[in-house]
Amino acid sequence: MDREDRDVKGGLTEAKQRKDGTRGKPSPARLTPARQRQKAQQQRAAEEGSKVFEEPLSISPELTSWIKLNAKDLKIRMTDRRWAAEVVNDFQDNLLKFLRSSRDQPFFQSADFLNTGSYFEKVKIHSPDEFDMMLKLQVPTRVNMTDLDGGLFYRIDLARPTRGPIQAFLLENECTLSSSKFLSEMYCLVRKFLKTYKVPEEGCRWEVNRKRIHSPAVTLSLCRPEINSDELISVDLVPALEGWPLAVRNGPDVDKWLGKKVRQEIRSLPCYFIPKRLKGRNLSEDAKESWRISFSHVEKKIIRSHGNKKTCCESKATKCCRKQCLMLLKSLIEGLKQRFPKELDHLCSYHGKTAFLHTLSIRFDDSMWACQQLPACFLNLLRALQSHACTGLLPHFFVPDCNLFSAAVFPQKALAFLINALEEQRREGLPLLKPPAPLPLLRLMSSSEDDTSEMSSDQSSILTAVCCLDTAFVNKLVLVFAVAVVCVLFCM
């Protein structure tokens, strides 16, 4: 963005550690048999992950060139980035002014934004068309957090009664915070704001998307209704409450990779709860009003300060290929989901991101991610994701007790399909790694650009699209043309 989003500084003080280093660790004697099996599975998965990187890779020159070529096409054009940033910044600034001056809901007057997601982590691919924003809300009193699923979903209760504006978001027991009431109020406020807000780009307007039952966000789309254009930009606006559950207070294991000091900094950051409902049928009342813990702001800090040496990828320092590898994996996952939308409906980019974070903690030295080793590094990352899928174990990076590949959240049939799809991609030379080549709509929207440069860019994009056409499709096109020629000659 033209202006850098501000880093979040946590207000929690660091607790003193005991010299024996055993504080906060559960006693092995108190572990249930199920918990012991889970710990053993996690340790076995870590060992399997280490073995993945011990096996040497054999990469053909063609595959090496293919990976490098696609890595270059993932970066967003600066002109597209600037246009999208101006539109989204204007929306964000004016919405914040509206909330702080609104008398309809005083609780939202203290709100502030926290920009998260791939765009602000600088790993967004293809185009700047998706933005994630957390709307931080301050809870005026202490809260109690009750774990509902092993570390990700919680029920949140006020520690003591209150007469403040937060009363409007309590259940009948006047204690439990209702996630559905928060989200519904957010929808109402955004709709009211849009009635008077004017988008700076002529002919465009923001539209609120239909509410989805398991989504924690108010999703908006920037469209140009006059020409029935497709969605230009999507924004996920997520209300978030600050908190820090005991289950995750020790922070992720990044000592070998980022160092103990960075781990302490991560521990000092607050966590945020977003109004996301547990999936499943016959849910209890607690599950229907659940909150999920979000680590997106911590993930942003980790990815933006990703090196073992603190100067990695700075202006005059040695560059690495970590972010490029993540962007390539995101592109491949996107291609798989487009090719197999039904079979891989449960797969998302966060599975790739989690495998990426685990890989960074194992391959922690900067020399392992040299730019010239990009093809090998990406294939290692791909093998790591495939290994997690084969073992059926992908522990959440911040809450290891939660397995993102468990049968409860990722059906085994879909997992088996993913394993086969990843193996097929590796065997056939990653054909789905190819990024889409849509018309540069964002550049066409920008009135400040010169027409000549736009025409040149459009021609370049069209040539790129033609060059990237599937070989089989081109052969069929030639065959159809030949048949047509023969038919014309025969008629003559």
Question: Topology of this protein?
Answer:
Elements: H1 33-54, H2 61-72, H3 78-101, E1 112-116, E2 130-137, E3 143-147, E4 153-158, H4 179-194, E5 205-208, E6 218-223, E7 233-243, H5 260-268, E8 271-274, H6 285-288, E9 291-294, H7 296-304, H8 322-339, H9 349-362, H10 374-391, H11 412-428, H12 441-445, H13 451-467, H14 471-491
Parallel strand pairs: 2-7
Antiparallel strand pairs: 1-2, 3-4, 4-9, 5-6, 6-7, 7-8, 8-9
Topology as a string of helices (H) and strands (E):
HHHEEEEHEEEHEHEHHHHHHHH
Helix-strand category: alpha+beta
First-to-last CA distance: 62 Å
**What value does the average pLDDT take?**
76
Number of strands: 9
The largest sheet is: 9 strands, mixed
How large is the radius of gyration? 25 Å
Number of helices: 14
How much helix, percentage-wise, in residues?
Answer: 40-55%
Spans of at least 5 consecutive residues whose pLDDT stays below 50 are 1-35, 437-474
- Proportion of β residues? 5-15%
Shape: globular
